[in-house]
Specification:
The complex is a heterodimer of chains A (about 210) and B (about 270). Chain A is mainly beta and about 210 residues long. Chain A contains one helix and twelve strands, in the order αββββββββββββ. In chain A, β4 and β5 form a beta hairpin. With about 270 residues, chain B is of the alpha+beta class. Chain B has two domains: about 140 residues, STM4215-like (2-Layer Sandwich); about 80 residues, no CATH class. Chain B is about 20% helix and about 45% strand. Chain B is elongated, with a radius of gyration of 29 Å. The two termini of chain B are about 35 Å apart. The chains are: A mainly beta (about 210), B alpha+beta (about 270). The interface between A and B is medium-sized, with 22 and 22 residues.
Chain lengths: ~210, ~270
Amino acid sequence: MDAAKLRNKVYIGYGKAAQRIGYVAQQFRATSAFNPMQTTPLQSLHASFTTNFSYSAPNKYGQAAWLGVFDGRQFVAGDFLSNAEDGVFFVAAMQTTLPIYCVQCNRTISVLRTSQEDAGGMIGYGGTTAENEVALMTGWPASILNGTKGEKSPVGLPADAKTPWYLLLFPSYGDIILRTSDIITDDIGRRYVVSSAELTDMGWRVTAMQGLV
Amino acid sequence: MADQSDVMNLLAAKAAAAVYPNGTGAPSITGTIVKIYPGWPVPNKLQTDINAGGVHISIYPLPTEKKVSVTLGRPYRVITTGTPTLVATVSGHTVTFSGAVSTPTNVYFLIDKVGYHYSVQNGDTLTTIATAMAIQVAGATSVGAVVTIPNVNSILARTGGIGTAARELRRQAKDFQITIWAPTPALRDTIASALDIALSEESNISLSDGAPAYMIYTRSFQSDASENYLVYRRDFVYTVNYATTQTIDAAQVVAPVMHIADTSNNPIKTILE
């Protein structure tokens, strides 16, 4: 027995348990930076998600992380699992012999970056507009949960409230490196401006300010 | 009276005329929907409209204003004369009422230098007015709308309505901010260019109280601070010099009376004209 063999056995065990307690989910893996959930599923398998192995506590508000119980032998970090019953999860980490760390995704996001012409000379008005935002990633499931702070909106309308901040979690892909001031939009029409983007071995952990008038 | 809400409405109307030169039923100069209003944008509507490519123009008075010197005295000026709809026509020994009866209207006869007055009441008709005048004058009779006054040398008949007069209580030069909220710099430029010309074209403006007012360009500024929100903004500040006025009802004079007195203020003669 070595670590790799032990790990496989543990995953097989998860798989057997999931057959009894989990619904059938489909596994997706991004093949490009665009619409990973529209790729062909790699497999269908039983999967269960829990907060602890005694199944004794529900997941709570503000808590994106779950433990995944499924046969993880064909998985790598960043893969998605989706079913109608439990929703969409991405595999954040598969640390050696440890439980599979999953993040529940409540939104679908696109990551945009303002571009400007590369040529020299006069190149038009400078600024972020909807037109010159280029998509780096589109259609990615992500976790968007309330952040901690808010600040005054620069729009300055009398009816403005403080602008909220959010914490976003989603997988990294390829060599795409997010930066401050990148724009993230989601499927309910919200718009976020990246404040800090931390690239971890579990994917992107981003704090972003909501940019909604 | 005119106050800053009148000025805001006027600025909004001028902006609307510049942006919708063919009327609001026709497309705007940018082809997109442009909303123009006094006040401030409502966040959710501004967001929806910006996302749809629309533009908002909001108008709001700034706290800044300048003191304006005014001349001494506060004379009333006639704004409307209150031309009556009731007409009294003298012909020989008869006075005939015609036209429409409305209140308030004063009716006055000057017969052989003696005045007779009646204020038209609600529900009066030409006939009842004629009756009301006839019973005041000795020997006069009325049939329908015609009053006959025999055996007199001169008959004058006048009708007068109630107009309005106003006076300036003070005058101020107040700054008004006209803000363009656009989804792109290009749209902002198009609207701003048209708006700037339209607002600067004519400095004399008319407000509801008829007092002279004028507006002049003061400054403008542009802000991309909210570009992450996809909101591009430009502000024009125009200074509007307008009066705060008081308006009163002013009855038309139907019975001028001239008193003549000596230097000790002893009455010599009273003349009714």
